[in-house]
Specification:
Chain lengths: 292, 316
């Protein structure tokens, strides 16, 4: 193959080194498989199950798993746990995903601006980041949740508002290390605007670390939603979420332990899969950060 | 050292001011704000709401309200709890010991186990133990703390009957043993996440130290492997862990809140949730600020301790 042929070869991103390394990462593949199965189950599952997630079957209250066509048993109102679990999955996964999108956007903008301008702007923004990190996230989240209308959209927003700091720190450090490079200087001499240099020239160079941080943020957001919904300030019934399914489970722990065990395992599987994928991406994209 | 102290203290003061602004903003800018508890009173009219707002000084410009509030905060006047009509700081003080007890005992557990796993993982790199510890830590970080608590109660209290399912002590039994017995399960539950984090960082820190020249020199001198590890490696690897312990404080407090809820542990977390339920706005606000101040203080102490031990930090 001549040099020109190599140059003209179509760019196949799926054959790049990063993708190959990711595919060879055993944990990441396990995580990806778990996530795909879980997502498909949540999307299609509710249509295949015999019961609706809101249908109240009073004669079948507290029915244990694997005994009748309530495959995973029923809750204290006689609602089908399997159906609720999968519908809850749609909500919990969506909240986790969109909270990640929003918090990554906030964190990226603040990080890029702080890193690029440096000086006073940097100190002001980064002290703001530090101050936000001083609040225990659950305290801040609950204080916010108690004063808003707890719809899934608002819950997503408050989770994003309390989890953008990590991304901001990573992006700021990256921008700082790239700011003095020649291509930035060249951009300035070409008369490109600051916004263009920040978001079109600098940002594409830090996609790797941002993707890794974003993946781990999904894991964190799913956990945070579970925490506040468990405590009664997140997604409100009758809308199911993995967290609020556990909300009343403690009082039935002795008589109906499956109420607590099933949603808890599901949350752990979902969060683990994102953590595994994040670990694989970190290795594949060669991102050097602190260990998880 | 004096220069370092002044610089670090100044940093903390700046952070404290920003923290107080965020805290103030949180509860004032959300719809409802401090008035939300009155809005629920039956028969409440708009005129009455306006009058209460005026009495509470809520119709003044926000910066004035903030300065007034911050000044009173500094003087130790954190407001009066709506629920039991006691000063907020007194109410928080009553719940401080329980939380501290839980946090300290779980930190001791997580440092002991996490350090051991981390060092062993680093010295037996890529062994089955190391691999299991890595995967185990990632799973441990994915388990919701409250759920782990529920499973613990189910197994150890309900099925085996070994440990109490909640509370800090049995009423009428104030012995130390009784307290310890109640402390075991919540401490372990709270420690799980920290064991995972601690072991990961300890592994990295140990690997960083283990390849350095002074370790090779010690080995070359003929120092026994055990002594190299205990004296040269672990001591140096533990240094960054002091800062880490400070950085983990917010997570520890968050975890404590959830753990206390599950175990009906009479600490600050439980108080926070109860106060939320009663719309006890001064206590919620007070706890939010108090926890953030605790974190800033913890970080400050961790940094000072690290700088005292390691001159590289204070001279940097």
């Amino acid at each position: 193959m001549t040099a020109t042929e190599i140059q003209n070869a179509p760019h196949r991103w799926w054959r790049s080194r990063g993708v190959r390394r990711f595919v060879r990462h055993r944990l990441a593949m396990v995580g990806l498989a778990m996530l795909i199965v879980l997502t498909l189950a949540c999307m299609i599952g509710p249509y295949l199950l015999p019961y609706d997630d809101l249908y109240i079957d009073l004669r079948a209250r507290f029915s244990p798993p694997f005994e009748n066509d309530h495959y995973l048993g029923t809750d204290p109102l006689g609602r089908d746990i399997a159906a609720r679990l999968l519908v809850a999955g749609r909500i919990s996964l969506m909240v986790g995903f969109f909270a990640m999108v929003l918090s990554t956007a906030i964190g990226t903008v603040i990080g890029v601006v702080a890193g690029y301008y440096g000086g006073m702007v940097n100190s002001a923004l980064m002290r703001f980041v530090d101050a936000f990190l001083a609040f225990p996230s659950i305290f801040l989240l609950l204080a916010l949740a108690a004063f808003i209308n707890p719809s899934p959209v608002m819950i997503t927003i408050i989770i994003a508002v309390t989890s953008w700091m990590e991304v901001a720190r990573i992006v700021e450090a990256e921008v700082k290390s790239l700011r003095e490079r020649d291509f930035v200087m060249a951009g300035r001499m070409l008369g490109l605007s600051n916004a263009h240099i920040m978001f079109r020239e600098l940002l594409p160079n830090m996609v790797g670390p941002i993707i890794v941080a974003a993946t781990l943020t999904v894991a964190r957001a799913i956990l945070l939603e579970a925490y506040i919904s468990f405590l009664g300030y997140g997604i409100q019934p009758p809308l199911p979420s993995w967290g609020n399914m556990l909300n009343g489970a403690q009082q039935y722990l002795a008589t109906a332990p499956w109420l607590a065990i099933i949603p808890g395992i599901t949350i752990t599987i979902a969060v683990t899969s994102f953590n595994f994928i994040g670990d694989g991406l970190r290795d594949a994209l060669d991102v050097r950060t602190a260990p998880t | 050292m004096a220069g370092f102290l002044v610089k670090r203290l100044w940093q903390s003061v700046v952070l404290l001011i920003i923290v107080s602004m965020i805290g103030f903003g949180v509860l004032h800018l959300t719809p409802g704000g401090p008035l939300s508890q009155y809005a629920l009173t039956p028969g409440m009219t708009q005129e009455n709401m306006d009058r209460i707002a005026e009495q509470m000084g809520l119709n003044r410009p926000l910066p004035i309200q903030y300065l007034d509030w911050a000044w009173r905060l500094l003087q130790g006047d954190w407001g009066i709890s709506y629920r039991d009509q006691q000063p907020v700081l007194t109410v928080i003080g009553r719940h401080l010991f329980a939380t501290m007890l839980l946090m300290v005992s779980s930190t001791v557990i997580s440092i002991a186990i996490g350090t051991w796993i981390g060092i062993r993982g680093a010295t037996h790199r890529y062994s089955t133990f190391d691999y299991t510890a890595t995967v185990g830590a990632m799973i441990a970080l994915s388990i919701p703390t409250f759920w782990f608590g529920l499973v613990g109660i189910y197994v150890f209290s309900l099925e085996l009957g070994w440990l109490p399912a909640g509370n800090m002590y049995t009423i009428g039994n104030g012995s130390v043993l009784n307290y310890l017995h109640h402390l075991i399960l919540p401490s372990i539950v709270l420690a799980l996440v920290n064991i995972a984090i601690w072991s990961r960082y300890m592994r990295t820190a140990t690997l960083d130290v283990i390849n350095q020249d002074f370790v090779k020199t010690a080995r070359a001198k003929g120092v026994s492997e055990r002594r190299v590890l205990m004296k040269h490696v672990v001591g140096n690897a533990l240094l960054p862990m002091i800062t880490l312990a400070g950085m983990q404080l917010p997570n520890l407090l968050s975890g404590a809140l959830v753990t206390e809820t599950v175990f009906t542990w009479p600490g600050m977390g439980r108080l926070f949730l109860d106060s939320l339920g009663y719309n006890d706005y001064p206590v919620v606000m007070g706890l939010l600020m108090f926890s953030a101040i605790l974190v800033l203080l913890g970080n400050l102490i961790a940094d000072i301790v690290a700088a005292t031990i390691d001159p590289r930090i204070r001279l940097a």
